[in-house]
Amino acid sequence: MSSFSITWMTRAQLPAFPPQMSFSAANPASTKPDDQARTPVIHWGRSLACVLESRHLHDQAWVVVYGDGKQLTGVHPLHDFRHISRIELAVNSHAVLLTDSAQRQQTVEFTQLKALDGSGGAGDPLNGLPTGIPFMLSNGHDYLMADEEGVCLAVNPDPKAMQWLYKDGQLVNVTTGQTLGLGICGKASAASGDRWRLSSQGELLYGDGTRSLCSAPISGEVWLQRRSEALPSETWRVHLPQRPRRGQVPSMVIDKLSVCLAVSGDYSAGTGDTLSFSINGSEHRQPLAGNFERGAHFQVEVDLSKMFQRSVIYADELHSVEIYQASAGGVRSGLEDAVAGPEGQ
């Protein structure tokens, strides 16, 4: 395990990112262009791993592993984590210590990283099915999908019906929750031999690797066929779901949020407490106001582009605004109403 090391790399030096993830800069407030910003990267053998953050959720990140240094082979979630600041080899432990810009820390074991590099063990060929992230399987024309009626090919199926998750050798359909097994059917629980692997030639191999998945484009049928050593009978490729296209109205980016606060006019109203808020249940809280008297009205404008640097919030992604009240030991309260919305709304 001593082969693990940490270096710093720029965005341009890293492999391609999944569509729902973005570069996590060491210093999000840096004025340097993105191609010069650097991020810490873990290396072992041919593999590398870096922290990427969500384009949609503001306290969600992942350790993303590229087994051969180029191909994504696994993802490990980091909840309540944002803007990677540094990665260190943990003292007296076979692990790495991750620290974000808010000084929150998480530990990832070497064994967890190795389990995501697609090797499966010393000398094993690289497995092309990524762990920990939904993906689609295409034969170049159609997608492998599953629904209540079974497993088949489809050109434009329900986006969820053609998404799969890979864990411990099993292929699980996102929609049905069933495991792909012998007979090319969905099973509530996998049998011992229901294991899959995507070879370097693009063959989707079943069990001991002597059989591969084949399909008929016209009928949409899929079946297992004995593998040909000379020429793959069918090649499959992994595709990661793209970010959904937005209509004109939902695509509006919310740059500023206006929060209006009203305190009751009752004699006992008013408080020495302070208020803060968060977006969509995020752990990231922003101060709003404090020490307000009875009958007071406040309108606070929050610059979300500064609050959530390097990320944006779209109109159709703003689901909730949470208001928090922190006590100052107070004997009074009386927050009567609070309204939040895009500036000017």
What does this 3D model show about the protein?
This protein has 345 residues and is an all-beta fold. It has three domains: 5-114, no CATH class; 136-239, Trefoil (Acidic Fibroblast Growth Factor, subunit A) (Trefoil); 256-342. The protein has two helices and 27 strands. The strands form nine sheets. Strands 1, 2, 3, 4, 5 and 6 form a six-stranded antiparallel beta sheet that branches. The protein has a four-stranded antiparallel beta sheet with strand order 17-18-19-20, with no helix packed on it. Strand 18 and strand 19 (211-215) form a beta hairpin.
Mean pLDDT: 81
Question: What is the strand tally?
Answer: 27
DSSP summary: helix tally: 2
The overall number of domains is: 3
Largest sheet properties = 6 strands, antiparallel
Beta-strand share of residues: 35-45%
Oligomer: single chain
Q: Which structural category fits the helices and strands? A: mainly beta
Cα radius of gyration in angstroms? 25 Å
- Report the end-to-end length measured between terminal Cα atoms: 56 Å
Question: What level of helicity do the residues show?
Answer: under 10%
Unreliable runs: 330-336
SSE sequence, one letter per element: EEEEEEEEEHEEEEEEEEEEEEEEEEHEE
Q: Specify the overall morphology.
A: elongated
Secondary structure layout plus pairing:
Elements lengths: L4 E6 L10 E3 L14 E7 L2 E8 L5 E7 L5 E8 L4 E6 L5 E6 L4 E5 H5 L21 E3 L4 E5 L2 E5 L9 E4 L2 E4 L5 E3 L3 E3 L8 E3 L5 E3 L4 E5 L6 E5 L10 E3 L16 E8 L6 E10 L6 E8 L3 E7 H4 L13 E6 L8 E8 L3
Antiparallel strand pairs: 1-3, 2-4, 3-4, 4-5, 5-6, 7-8, 8-9, 10-21, 11-12, 13-14, 15-16, 17-18, 18-19, 19-20, 22-25, 22-27, 23-24, 23-26
